[in-house]
Specification:
single chain; alpha/beta; Rossmann fold; UDP-galactose 4-epimerase, domain 1; two-stranded parallel sheet; 10 helices; 37% helix; 17% strand; binds nicotinamide-adenine-dinucleotide; decarboxylase; membrane
Length: 323
């Protein structure tokens, strides 16, 4: 929140036209910030920020962050939230070199911007840094082993590099950095073509086709509603804790239960069928959020039922084709 009579603080959100970034922009505007969103719409959508077109405290800078220099953003900046990165497997595997370029050059540019303005810097990192072997409960001090050459390395190694770079700016330049390791987040404006099981259920529910549960359905997911994830990022930015800190839901929910919830919300005609699971199906992954709870006073508040109800209602209302 901005104090009475204080000059408007200025936040820069890279990737602000994406799913998470657009909700972050909304929350910052609501708490009195002036917001500059830097996005090249690689995976973001104009529809995500169109409602801010007439908002005088919102500026959209349609730029590739890799090519952004100091002069592109004049004036003071209080906080830089760095979210620009392909987040869905369908995107980051499409052009792995581009994925690594945004994590390297893009993160360098975002860090240099924060450094030149003595701003707080918040990196939106990911649970993927724990590696594919990270099934189970992930804790910040237990980063798993990853294989940089297994074909998925472009994503998790690029995010690990971004974390290392952020840490280097902290230790070398005393930059006030923070790292959030975000877990599976969902809500209005989420991508429905990102390959995640919940996205598929929502797409199927909207299309009126059966919800396909990869057998046996006992495998679990942790689902954090987007408003809760945004609250976690704001709490992290507001303090001085450098992280990394997990932001996600610690509650495991079975894939079958998720399908049942979606089916119940979708209506009486919704059907569930079981299908063969993919060869490398994740069995379980969820965060330990002890650090976030202790240091930020943060934990998710939205139940899966309420979050899914709001999400499906939004997709039905907007009738946007996402698949
Ligand atoms: P998203 O794809 O919706 O948003 C990413 C945004 O970055 C898009 O608007 C895209 O256009 C923009 N972008 C990409 N390359 C860019 C470039 N070179 N210059 C400028 N803008 C660029 O993804 P999201 O789900 O909102 O994720 C945002 C961040 O949160 C990512 O860093 C992601 O790794 C992290 N994260 C998200 C989740 C999740 O469940 N959604 C989980 C873990 C981590």
């Amino acid at each position: 929140m901005v104090g009475d009579g204080a000059a408007e603080p200025h936040a820069v959100v890279t990737g602000g036209a994406g799913f998470l970034g657009s909700h972050l922009c909304d929350a910052l505007i609501a708490s009195g910030y002036r917001v500059t969103c830097v996005d090249n719409f690689e995976t973001g959508r104009t529809a995500n920020v169109r409602h801010l077109d007439d908002e005088p405290r919102f500026t959209l800078l349609r730029r590739d962050l890799k090519e952004c220099g100091d002069g592109d953003l004049p004036g003071p900046v209080d906080v830089v939230y760095h979210l620009a990165a392909p987040a869905a497997p369908s995107d980051y595997l499409l052009d792995p070199v581009a994925t690594m370029r945004i994590a390297s050059t893009g993160t360098l540019n975002a860090l240099d911007l924060a450094r030149s303005r003595s701003a707080r810097f918040v990196l939106a990192s990911t649970s993927e840094v724990y590696g594919p072997a990270g099934d189970g409960v992930s804790r910040e001090d237990r980063v798993g082993q990853v294989d940089p050459a297994d074909g998925y390395g472009a994503y998790y190694e690029s995010r690990r590099f971004a974390e290392a770079l952020t840490t280097a700016y902290r230790t070398t330049y005393d930059l006030r950095t923070a790292i959030a390791r975000i877990f599976n987040t969902y809500g209005p404006r989420m991508r429905l073509d990102d390959g995640r099981v919940l996205s598929r259920f929502i797409r199927q529910a909207l299309a009126g086709t059966p919800l396909t549960v990869p057998g046996p359905g006992t495998q679990t997911r942790s689902l954090c509603y987007v408003d809760d994830a945004v609250a976690g990022l704001l709490a992290l930015a507001g303090g001085s804790y450098p992280g990394p800190v997990n932001i996600g839901s610690p509650e495991p929910v079975s894939v079958f239960t998720i399908a049942q919830e979606v089916a119940e919300i979708a209506g009486p005609d919704a059907e569930i069928v079981f299908v063969e699971p993919p060869v490398a199906e994740t069995q379980a992954r969820r965060p330990d959020i002890t650090l976030a709870a202790q240091l930020l006073g943060w934990r998710p508040r939205t139940s899966v039922h309420d979050g899914l109800t709001a999400t499906l209602a939004w997709f039905r209302r907007t009738r946007i084709r996402h698949a």
